[in-house]
Structure formats: C-alpha cells, structure tokens
Amino acid sequence: MKKENLFKWKHYQPDIILLTVRWYLRYNLSFRDLVEMMEERGLCIAHTTIMRWVHQYGPELDERIRRYLKTTNDSWRVDETYVKVKGQWMYLYRAVDSEGNTIDFYLSKTRTTGAAKHFFKKALRPFHVSKPRVITVDKNPAYPMAIEELKNRKKMPVGIQLRLVKYLNNIVEQDHRFIKKRVRSMLGLKSFSTATSVISGIEAMHMIKKGQLISRDKSAQNQIEFIHELFGITA
Question: How far apart are the first and last CA of the chain?
Fold first, then answer.
C-alpha cells in the first residue's frame, strides 16, 4: 500500500497517527490515556479515532516489518496462552526460537488439532523463519497429531524431532508475559477480528522491542525512525 492510500482522508498528520498507535501497542495505556496525552500537545482526538487507527495500522505494521526481521534458528518452542475476547477465553498460539525470537502467532477460538495445523502452516510461511529441526511443545495432544498430518501432506519437513519437555518451554512461557500484560490492561477486546488486529500490532512492537530487526539497535529513536521509514513518512 502506498502512503497516500494509507493516510488518505485522515485529519491528522501521519507522524501523529503512528505515534498514538505505537504508544498504545507498546505501553500499558488506554485510549483515554492517549487522548489526555495528545491534549497536552494541543490536539483534540477522540478515543474512538485512536482505536480505529490501532485497528487499521497495527496489522499493517506487522505485515511490513516481516521482511526486515532477522532469520530465526531451527529450534522452535511452541505454546498457547489465553486471551479473553468479548467475555470468552480464546487461544493465542505462539512460537519462539531457542534465543527467544518470535517466529509467529495465531489467535484461535478453539484448541484443537485443526487450530494447531493452521498455526504451524502460518508459522512456516514468513521469509525470516527457518524450517524447524526440532519443535518443543507441552502435553497438548493436538500438537503431535497436527505435525504428523502436516508431514503426511508434505507441508512440514519429515525429519523434525518433536520434544515434550516442559522446562525447555520456559522461554516461550516467559515471552507470553509481555503480550498478556498488555492485553490485560485493556478494557476488553470486543470482537475476534479486532482482537486479531490489536494482537498483531502488539506482537509486531514486541519483535521490534526485542531487537529482531536486521542491522538495527533497540534504541527508541531507531524504532521511531524505522517505523516512519516503513510507512514512507521520513523527512
């Protein structure tokens, strides 16, 4: 998407839009917190406007950073955590490599073999992801069944080693914390589609925060410059 299409008909400058989106996805702020913070800058922005920006630009950020991510290693740690959407618990599948770099994520209404297959197929698509040599999972029986079915369909390398070793998955369980903490401080995710949009943006900012970008340090200023470059609003 081009810059003029992304920000067309917006009443605010692109850098202001990206500032509010970036702060919301990165810090434990509500939409009304951001309204007050923008008022200090002389800007009157409705909280629903910021919400729409987050829903639009969060997924766009996730899509655009993928080509700039460092290649992950071939030791996957896979686990799912819980996210409440419209009063119901949903399942957020997540995978990191042995160094803690995010491989991918997938929000699902169910915790089934089918959901696990969708997650693995999604995780194998990005360019920055190395094909797994070993996958470490918990005792969820859906994982071995999903992996076996994908192997049979030649959607996953046949020689993958599957490990059910709980302590080795501590790294992905620790990595859940940032996502859980950010989601928990929100007033609630109102629908599955908005939850998917918001979580994709949170995950994108988490990858940037962890230093997964190629040839970039983790300083806040570099993060700002990088996001501006992604959306074509550099000076």
Answer: 19
